[in-house]
């Protein structure tokens, strides 16, 4: 008898909350966005709720396109690997997922940092691979222009190959620690990558042992065509944004259907849409919270957020008018799937710029669920049992309250229904997610030939 | 009445010990080099000993020039910022100094990581700025050749300017958290760097608030001519290697003498030579420990270490013969000052290759002190009171034992003599070191003109 299929939960900690007005919300600890004690409390709350992982987004620029928005929004947060490393010391079970861009980093450093975090945390590291959607980032890295979308994905694919290759520099049992015979490492188990590609030349080997999990868990968020293909080949979790059950089901079938051609099975990739829950003791209380948050959105901050999500500057247009004519998808060099989603939403519902930014100022294109803990559990269950999701990345509107409410009221309901764990079953993130530990490339027949050994 | 001048102590944690044979030494926890619990114990021991800071070296390659040495030496360790972030969560006072190279990194990332660590640790971060001396690192970063020594220093200087500029992106009081009036940040206190230089084009601003310490403490280790000049202009600690009191005094006077032309005072820069202490209850026991360590050095590992320290391959030469003719200093593209130091040492004492590697296999060119806790305290005091050092970076031969002995036996002796603190006096690393907190560039008259404000 197999156990009932379990859903997976991520705690997406955008501080001090996902809603663009979160920092103005009563009780939100807005001044604590750089304080370790704040994050420690959040991490321990998520672990109390048996979440699979903490999830941190990242970006490499303060956008100055909308000067007023700078004063009205939270532009400063800790770098995710630094923060998650600190949190690894005060948690025991919860996974630690950091966003790191392949567009503005070097694979050697990225491989090394995640390998280090995986060792120090006892096998809890995950890498959310992004290609960066904000053109302002280029200007902080000696570049005049943001790399084109298609080139970013080419680079990302090669980047990932180099990183996983470097993680396999040493076989799992390479280290002997044999004091008597002076053998610290068995060098026949050291593999030098010697990668020479289009984007990178990286000799290796890595100066960190193979990670506890073999490879830290690989997460991707892109839902564009190249994003889906890269995910089907390499990702173990997809974090994605869908508004309706039908869209989510379509995406789920589409991506899962691409796995077989890469020799992967249905369970090797978990699809976890984002969910932005506004929780009330009654549905009315939840709706009041939502209205309160919308009321607190500073206008420039709303326009700025919407403009960045659709990669198009809306500031010249009347805020109570419709969206202007937007460029064709081919011209968009930001997040392509988010562009389409928001454009379709505005058209479908005939939203003005203001109505649209109010609509997305919390969930940012992800699914918003407003209601009681029971209603929220119902909606999560609906997607989970109907082939739309393997789990969810939970995006609390404000912190710490929004996470605490989820842990104290929604999680117990999911547990009652037998949909979610009551205790952590494994020791690594991979164990808890039900993902296989990858065999070392030199010991698996598939890719042994591509490895040059010393 | 001013307090007696206090010496500063760093705990240089090269795991599982500085001696190249440390991992073979009895009781050394060689298998723990990637375990958090091991580092936690070391960090808490250093904090119990009131050390100013933990200090971690770093490198970006496994050298494969000496194949046997790979199996005989410790080639894998955690990345320092990842590790120190984790340690920040289990310590309260001790500073956290990470080595990061300016040759293979981007200033935006480096500024951000140290700013993050400084916030998360409550003002305990320090950056040991190095330019990398190992040519093998280039091959892991898309380069065929290591950058020339002089160019590395040019790049380092500009890199440091960019990083300190980014740390000043926000004034100290830029963040208001004013929920009522929707002012998270006062944008008149945001400064965009707009750096365009020879090596870097970085717009800024940084997406982290100004660090708790203003700027994390800047450490340098270079003792070459360009190294000294860069340090005199920008460093707050110099970590340096000298064998004799006279050399150390000369260096101390030389560097301190260069401060005035940069508008800096004598106390703005602390000079901390490395010290490798082998501690015994008797002098005889200490000498036996040293002999035991020398006996445990695998020959290839010894030759490999020496070759890398002098940037010259000694493997073709008879190990019991003299050093071969070495290149002129101008041709050396590794660590120039270390090259000179070792060459002079071999000549002065007529050492064979084997004798020289035995001699440096622990201290690696730093000062070795073998004796009782009293003898070690005497020798530290001698340099400290005679204008050769403001403190010391302590390099335990093996871990955890070598650090525990220092904390339990040498520190109390230094405290008895009134040379070292019995309690931490400040809350930040800067406070404890007696270093001024740098004023923001926009509020100090000196450099306000070089800042473009938004």
Task: Characterise this structure.
Chains A, B: It is an enzyme of class 1 (oxidoreductase). Chains A, B: InterPro entries: Diverse_substr_monoxygenases, Luciferase-like_dom, Luciferase-like_sf, NTA_MOA. Chains A, B: GO terms for molecular function: nitrilotriacetate monooxygenase activity. Two copies of one chain form a homodimer. Chain A is an alpha/beta fold and 454 residues long. Chain A has two domains: 8-169 and 203-295 and 365-441, Alpha-Beta Barrel (TIM Barrel), CATH 3.20.20.30; 298-360, no CATH class. Chain A has helices at residues 36-48, 67-72, 80-88, 107-120, 149-167, 225-234, 245-257, 283-295, 299-310, 336-349, 353-360, 373-385, 401-416, 429-433, and strands at residues 8-12, 53-56, 95-101, 125-130, 175-178, 183-185, 191-192, 195-196, 201-202, 217-220, 237-240, 270-279, 367-371, 391-394, 452-453. In chain A, strand 3, helix 4 and strand 4 form a beta-alpha-beta unit. Chain A is globular. Mean pLDDT of chain A is 93; it is low at 446-454.
> Kindly state the mean pLDDT of chain A as a whole number?
93
Biggest sheet features of chain A: 8 strands, parallel, barrel
Task: Report the count of strand segments of chain A.
Answer: 15
Q: Tell me, briefly, the overall form of chain A.
A: globular
Number of structural domains of chain A: 2
* Residue fraction in strands of chain A: 5-15%
Helix content of chain A: 25-40%
State the assembly state of the protein chains.
Answer: homodimer
Biggest sheet, spatial arrangement of strands of chain A: 1-2-3-4-10-11-12-14
CATH architecture of the largest domain in chain A: Alpha-Beta Barrel
- Tell me the radius of gyration of chain A: 22 Å
Family (chains A, B): Belongs to the NtaA/SnaA/DszA monooxygenase family.
EC number (chains A, B): 1.14.14.10
InterPro entries (chains A, B): Diverse_substr_monoxygenases, Luciferase-like_dom, Luciferase-like_sf, NTA_MOA
Domain Luciferase-like (chains A, B): 32-386
């Amino acid at each position: 008898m197999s156990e009932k299929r379990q859903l997976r939960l991520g705690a997406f900690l955008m501080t001090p909350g996902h809603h663009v007005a979160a920092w103005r919300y009563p009780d939100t600890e807005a001044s604590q966005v750089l304080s370790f004690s704040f994050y420690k409390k959040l991490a321990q709350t998520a672990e109390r709720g048996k979440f699979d992982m903490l999830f941190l987004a990242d970006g490499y620029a303060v956008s100055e396109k909308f000067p007023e928005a700078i004063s009205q929004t939270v532009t400063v947060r800790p770098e995710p690997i630094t923060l998650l490393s600190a949190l690894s010391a005060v948690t025991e079970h919860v996974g630690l997922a950091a966003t790191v861009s392949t567009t503005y980093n070097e694979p050697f450093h990225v491989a090394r940092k995640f390998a280090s975090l995986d060792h120090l945390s006892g096998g809890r590291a995950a890498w959310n691979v992004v290609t960066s959607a904000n053109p302002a980032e280029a200007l902080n890295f000696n570049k005049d222009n943001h790399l084109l979308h298609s080139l970013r994905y080419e680079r990302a694919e090669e980047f990932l190959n180099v990183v996983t290759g470097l993680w396999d520099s040493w076989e799992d049992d390479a280290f002997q620690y044999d004091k008597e015979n002076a053998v610290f490492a068995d060098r026949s188990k050291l593999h030098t990558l010697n990668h020479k590609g289009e984007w990178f030349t990286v000799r290796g080997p890595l100066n960190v042992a193979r990670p506890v999990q073999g490879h830290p868990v690989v997460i991707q968020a892109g839902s564009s065509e190249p994003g889906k293909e890269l995910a089907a080949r390499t990702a173990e979790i997809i974090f994605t944004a869908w508004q309706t059950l039908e869209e989510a089901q379509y995406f789920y079938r589409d991506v899962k259907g691409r796995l077989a051609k890469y020799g992967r099975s249905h369970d090797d990739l978990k699809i976890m849409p984002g969910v932005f829950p506004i929780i009330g003791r009654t549905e009315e209380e939840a709706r009041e919270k939502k209205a309160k948050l919308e009321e607190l959105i500073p206008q420039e901050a709303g326009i700025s957020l919407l403009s960045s999500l659709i990669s198009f500057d809306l500031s010249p247009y009347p805020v109570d008018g419709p969206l202007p004519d937007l460029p064709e998808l081919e011209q968009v060099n930001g997040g392509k799937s988010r562009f389409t989603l928001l454009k379709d939403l505005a058209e479908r519902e005939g939203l003005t710029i203001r109505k649209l930014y109010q609509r997305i100022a919390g969930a940012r294109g992800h699914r918003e669920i407003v209601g009681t803990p029971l209603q929220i559990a119902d909606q999560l269950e609906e997607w989970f049992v109907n082939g739309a999701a393997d789990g969810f990345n939970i995006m609390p509107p404000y912190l710490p309250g929004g996470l605490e409410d989820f842990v104290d009221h929604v999680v117990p309901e999911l547990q009652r229904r037998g949909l979610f764990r009551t205790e952590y079953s494994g020791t690594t993130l991979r164990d808890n997610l039900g993902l296989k530990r990858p065999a070392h490339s030199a010991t698996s027949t598939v890719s042994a030939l591509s490895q040059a050994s010393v």
